[in-house]
């Protein structure tokens, strides 16, 4: 028995069991094996802002969250994507409730299943509000800098040539990762998230933040991620942190080593022109990631021919050609992916989930479908899609819960 347990710790092996005794977990020294990472990605679900506290939602109210917890337990979710974040609302980080309530929610769930991973997100946006946040001494110390008493500087995070400055609106820009101030801020956020129990971080569009400077961008991302992972050894609850980004080029590699643990990307739905509202998946359509991820040595030290990846139902708004096809853009019948999905009849939503899961599995052994659990939608009666079975406890549920459970079970 002792020998078996040692092998489990070293190799991250798993065995079939129920959710509460599932042994898919990180090795204590900060290394995550390919098998364990696969286990998590294969039970991944987007549950945007699940653990955010009242008053800290990015796009309107989020009622009946208790039913989300019930659903996640019912389907056996293991990787809770985008569970907490801010999109250009840095004032959230100054609210004690933002951190304390999220920690309480994570702790409560881990009392049920201690192996579940909650993911936070650090996106490609920074606003002037960042200047209200004091820089802790441990941020300077992590970068071997003299400790100062000052706040983060917005201007110091921007591209020196003005690239993507005021990209979102005036005073709201894409931060330049090659600027040290950006790396200080991202490190601050990553460590704060790890302190509350977060074990995975999505770093938005890493290539966009590299400002088309491949050499400097790779070096900057490597420095940041190395420091985040070093901090995880002592700060993260199980000694490691899973890092990913939207990477249309298939991955960031420096000297043969992958900078991110896996890649994430939108599904990229292709409209079936002669069947209104119907879509399909296709290798090579637009900038889809299928069969395109690059290989190398992972941050945990194991080699892969191609990086593992997730495809998700992305949200980015609606177009001016609603309900009309246009294969030259990223919209599906004029809508972003999760809004399109939410608009479909219940039967087709369930059918599409089964199709997409099987298609990705057969098309590319390195890919996984991240299930849609809860995510912001646009131009609908409610502000978000919910996979929950519709009931008095979740009247806005779209009833994909049992389908997701069935897919994962099989």
Number of helices: 11
| Poorly predicted regions | 1-24
Report the end-to-end length measured between terminal Cα atoms: 29 Å
Task: State Rg.
Answer: 21 Å
Helix fraction bin: 25-40%
**Main beta sheet: strand number and arrangement?**
10 strands, mixed
Oligomer: single chain
Q: How do the strands of the widest beta sheet line up side by side?
A: 16-15-10-7-6-3-2-1-17-18
Strand content: 5-15%
Query: How many β-strand runs?
Result: 18
SSE arrangement, N to C: HHEHEHEEHEHEHHEEEEEEEEEHHEEEH
| Structural class computed from helices and strand pairing | alpha/beta
What overall geometry do the principal axes of the alpha carbons give? Answer: globular
Mean pLDDT: 92
Question: What is this entry, summarized?
Answer:
This protein is α/β, with parallel strands linked by helices and 410 residues long. The protein is 31% helix and 15% strand.
Overview of the molecule:
The chain has helices at residues 2-11, 34-41, 65-75, 96-112, 137-142, 180-195, 206-209, 214-235, 337-343, 346-363, 401-409; strands at residues 44-47, 79-85, 117-121, 126-127, 172-173, 200-202, 242-246, 253-254, 257-258, 262-266, 270-271, 279-280, 296-297, 303-304, 309-312, 367-369, 371-376, 384-386. With 410 residues, it is an alpha/beta fold. The longest helix has 22 residues, at 214-235. The model is unreliable at 1-24 (pLDDT under 50).
